[in-house]
Design a protein that fits this description.
- The protein is an alpha+beta fold.
- A hairpin with a 2-residue loop joins strand 7 and strand 8.
- The radius of gyration is 28 Å and the shape is elongated.
- The two termini are about 45 Å apart.
Length: about 375
């Protein structure tokens, strides 16, 4: 105990001194460069002469001073940019936290590709949690980008992470999400009132969120509620088909939810089958000739080799997407893959219970 307490001040002192050193350099270097320029102009006799040689020397001095100031400002801006990216990365890990590679017998992988190379988070959201009701998954897409979209993502995901465990019915989970979104939008409306002087990029009146809620029970039964989101694809052997063609409900936000929130039966996820959830940026991606990206074709290519892992599906799809868009997608893209590995888990348990479980896949990424 004493060693831990005694060690804390010694760790903090170098940080404090380094901060003071950076502040000194930030404020002192421009002052030094300016002092050099002023001293030369008023203290050097050569600066008062009008000859060609004197003018060349004067120009060289001021060019050096200007270059030094520009380089100093550039270093300061790069330092601030690195700090901003660290903060964005921390926010990313809290909002779209890395999913476990295995969840209640399901192999899981998720990734996001941002349309803005300088952005770490956007308007796409996803989460998967194991509950007593089964594995519950949410995939959604917030209209717009920027700080307003990030706040909406946080409100929806925070509500889902609580409601997924508390509510026995999937419709009640959606109701919790709708109420959380409504509260968030009311708070934003007060903050963006004309009296506040703010000019919002995405007005609250135009805000909406597409949401897909999915529930996979222990025996592989799949149920869903869809609010304006694309239906997932089922990868069974070498076939790629949508899990449903039912008309989805309207997105959350503009319209109230119906009183009867019945779930859609999406069949069963058999052993080795996979579900691919995605945001509409995947199918809306275009090439230089304006042709849309064919997600079913990319998924068909991904399931040609057996066995199929969620990580391999993500690699195949994102490689094809980047090739199709020439590395410049115009919208955020998120994919989440769930593979039923429960049969493998039962096989590994052995007849006598002595066999060891198979090793899990590496930690999936949340960035594209």
């Amino acid at each position: 105990m004493i060693r831990i307490k005694a060690g804390v001040p010694h760790r903090r002192r170098p940080r404090t001194s380094s901060r003071r050193s950076r502040c000194t350099l930030t404020l002192g270097l421009p002052t030094v460069w300016g002092a050099v320029a002023v001293s030369y102009k008023f203290g050097c006799p050569l600066a008062e002469q009008n000859g060609l040689g004197a003018r060349i020397v004067t120009s060289a001095v001021f060019f050096a001073v200007g270059t030094g100031l520009i380089l100093h400002v550039r270093r300061a801006l790069l330092r601030e940019l690195r700090q901003a990216r660290k903060v964005a990365g921390a926010a990313q890990s809290v909002l779209l936290r890395p999913l476990p590679p295995r969840l209640a017998g399901l192999n899981v992988a998720a990734a996001q590709l941002s349309a803005d190379r300088g952005a770490a988070i956007g308007g796409d959201l996803y989460e998967a949690v194991a509950t007593e009701h089964g594995v519950r998954v949410v995939m959604g897409d917030v209209r717009g980008h920027g700080l307003a979209a990030i706040g909406t993502v946080a409100a929806v995901l925070g509500s889902f992470r609580e409601a997924a465990h508390d509510e026995p019915e999937l419709g009640h989970v959606l109701g919790r999400l709708d109420r959380a979104l409504a509260r968030h939008l009311r708070e934003r409306a007060r903050a963006e009132h004309p009296a506040s002087g703010l000019d919002p990029d995405n007005p609250v009146a135009e805000e909406f969120v597409t949401v897909l809620l999915l529930e996979i029970t222990g025996d592989g039964e799949v149920r869903a509620i869809n609010c304006g989101h694309p239906w997932p694809y089922l990868l069974s052997e070498q076939r790629v088909t949508p899990v449903s063609r039912a008309e989805p409900l309207p997105p959350l936000g503009p319209f109230p939810l119906p009183t009867d929130l019945a779930t859609t039966d999406c069949g069963h996820l058999r052993p080795d089958d996979s579900l691919v959830l995605y945001t509409d940026g995947a199918e809306d991606a275009r090439d230089t000739k304006g042709r849309f990206f064919s997600l079913p074709q990319a998924l068909t290519e991904a399931v040609r080799d057996r066995p199929v892992s969620p990580q391999a599906i993500l690699r195949t799809v994102f490689t094809a997407l980047l090739h199709h868009t020439n590395g410049r997608p115009t919208d955020d893209i998120a994919l989440l893959v769930l593979n039923n590995g429960r049969a493998q888990q039962r096989t590994c348990s052995g007849a006598r219970g002595t066999a060891r479980a198979t090793t899990t896949h590496p930690q999936p990424t949340t960035h594209g």
